[in-house]
Design brief:
With 480 residues, the protein is of the alpha/beta class. Helix content is 35%, strand content 15%. Helix 2 packs antiparallel against helix 3 and helix 7 runs antiparallel to helix 13.
Length: 480
């Protein structure tokens, strides 16, 4: 088996035992890039020489007994995360040759922990464009190369699922870690607002933006969280709370925990086969010893409207310097940007004020029902085809964005931590379960996820690699 098939946790165990080296792991990942990325288009910038040099330094540290937490583990970064001396495009022609002079804090932390940056990864333009990226072409889903990975952390989802890298960083304003994680069969964590600093990360909405890990196991997500969490002087919104030992939560007992199943809005517009897979996953979750009880949230439709009001207003502010170049942007991103001037200041302020109301509603429901966390589906359909970006809800085909973020964006609005884990396959495509918790309670979500993964094999499902080695479909766009 190629070392590229292993998780970060498994690689670290082999390194520690002297049974594999970081150089071998990085070379196997580079070989996987060469084999599959001509079809997937997940990689925007490959750092072959730098990665091999970093792997050699990591091998020396293992030999010297000075290995750091992620020593020699290859990883990828969504290409809105600044990297000193390495281009950071934002998935846009407007920044196609942009080379930052400093690292984003989270990128610096991964490097300082011994991680080996293998590649900068595909993203929807500025994390808000469409799947058909006009500059770099579409990124394809390894489970079915005619389908999207979702977005906007498109390359992170595709690369981790295709075993190009064991872990990657994504960002999430309305679901952009959790949607591609759901569509690609990954474990993706949107941390509590402020838990992971965002300085050096291209912004879309300072109230709603989050950054976090996309991995193939809860254990790997915990490893990353231990490295990237904590306050940064460069991000005034970052949390100064002490960082818990996330990895210590892996394998912890969850027996007796009470989980609230959010009905109503969160389970509407769901394809029946996806709904059946979700019921099966809930039964598996209950089998870990947790109690799943039905609860509901009032006025959650208002939350969705308020969320997008905030995003539109802040997006216009953050993109003011390039707003006049709207004709040079992806159609979807241009369409969103074109709508932003029509958000009135009064509506934006109302949406911000309602945020605290919704946070209090979540707290009240949890307290009244004695809950430790919530559970919802992570996606209510399987991924759409790139050719039309339509999804089947069981009642007909609709534009994917009509449903893709409806179960994810409420937790961006509240700032609550939310994690997705793979559920059963439907027609050969992944489904997922979303767990959401109290602010700064990522360890509990990771404990629940690891218990679920210990009781199931959904996260171990392997995709058929044949199509990944075939000629790219005719609709593929060539990287610029």
């Amino acid at each position: 088996m190629s070392l590229a098939d292993l998780t970060a946790t498994e690689l670290l165990a082999l390194y520690a035992a002297g049974e594999a080296s970081p150089v071998e792991a990085v070379q196997d990942c580079l070989d996987r890039v060469a084999a599959v990325d001509p079809v997937l288009n997940a990689v925007l910038t490959l750092l072959e020489e730098d990665a091999l040099a970093g792997a050699r330094r990591s091998a020396e540290r293992w030999a010297a007994g000075t290995a750091r937490p992620l020593e020699g583990v290859p990883y990828g970064l969504k290409d809105i995360v600044a990297t000193a001396g390495v281009r950071t495009t934002g998935g846009s022609a407007l920044y196609a040759e942009h080379v930052p002079t400093t690292d984003a804090t989270l990128a610096a932390r991964l490097r300082e922990a011994g991680g080996v940056l293998l590649a900068k990864l595909h993203t929807f333009e500025f994390a808000c464009g469409g799947a058909q990226n006009r500059t770099f072409g579409p990124c394809r889903n390894p489970w079915d190369v005619e389908r999207t990975t979702g977005g906007s952390s498109s390359g992170s989802g595709s690369a981790v699922a295709a075993r190009v890298v064991p872990l990657a960083i994504g960002t999430d304003t309305g679901g952009s870690i959790r949607i591609p994680s759901s569509y690609c069969g990954l474990t993706g964590l949107k941390p509590t607002y402020g838990r992971v600093p965002r300085d050096g990360v291209m912004g879309m909405s300072w109230t709603m933006d989050h950054a976090g890990p996309m991995t193939r196991s809860a254990a790997d997500a915990a490893l990353v969280m231990d490295v990237v969490s904590g306050a940064s002087a460069g991000d005034p919104t970052s949390s100064a709370r002490p960082v818990p030992a996330h990895a210590a939560a892996i394998g912890a007992s969850v027996a007796g925990r009470r989980i609230g199943r959010l009905r109503g809005w969160f389970e509407e517009r769901m394809h029946p086969a996806v709904g059946a897979a979700y019921e099966s996953a809930l039964a598996d979750l209950a089998g870990t010893g947790v109690e799943v009880v039905d609860v509901d949230l009032e006025e959650v439709d208002v939350v969705a409207a308020a969320s997008w009001t905030v995003i539109y207003a802040e997006m216009l502010s953050l993109h003011a310097d390039v707003a006049h170049l709207i004709e040079d942007r992806d159609a979807m991103g241009a369409g969103i940007l074109a709508a932003t001037p029509y958000v009135h200041a009064a509506d934006y302020l109302k949406a911000l004020r309602y945020r605290s109301v919704f946070q209090q509603q979540l707290d009240s429901v949890m307290a009244a029902a004695g809950l430790d966390a919530f559970v919802t589906p992570a996606a209510t359909t399987t991924p759409p085809k790139l050719a039309d970006m339509l999804v089947d809800t069981g009642d007909g085909l609709v534009d994917w964005l009509d449903v893709a973020s409806r179960v994810t964006v409420p937790f961006n609005y509240s700032g609550s931590p939310a994690l997705v884990v793979p559920g059963p396959l439907v027609d050969g495509m992944p489904t997922s379960v979303q767990l959401a918790g109290r602010p700064h309670d990522e360890p509990l979500l990771l404990a629940l996820a690891s218990a679920f993964q210990a009781a199931t094999t959904h996260h171990l499902a392997r995709l058929a690699e044949g199509p990944l080695h075939a000629t790219a479909p005719s609709t593929a766009g060539a990287p610029a």
